[in-house]
Amino acid sequence: MKAPYDIEEIAEGAEKSNFLDLDIENRHIVILAKVQLPHRDPWDSMLVAQAQSDALHLLTADRKILDHFDRSIDATK
Fold it and tell me: Is 1's pLDDT higher than 60?
């Protein structure tokens, strides 16, 4: 499936904005087992685990995450 956006533009914008990479660490894996989303998407679960572990907000347009993770922010607004 082709993404509806240019990945290179996103990477360039993230770098210009001084965003940092968030590597997957052991502390994230420990939290991953506790993530309860209504779907079994492992990538979504890891994003939520990282946000929970590091006390971060998760910017997303994914309604399933928005409805079940209280530290999520609606990217469509």
Answer: no
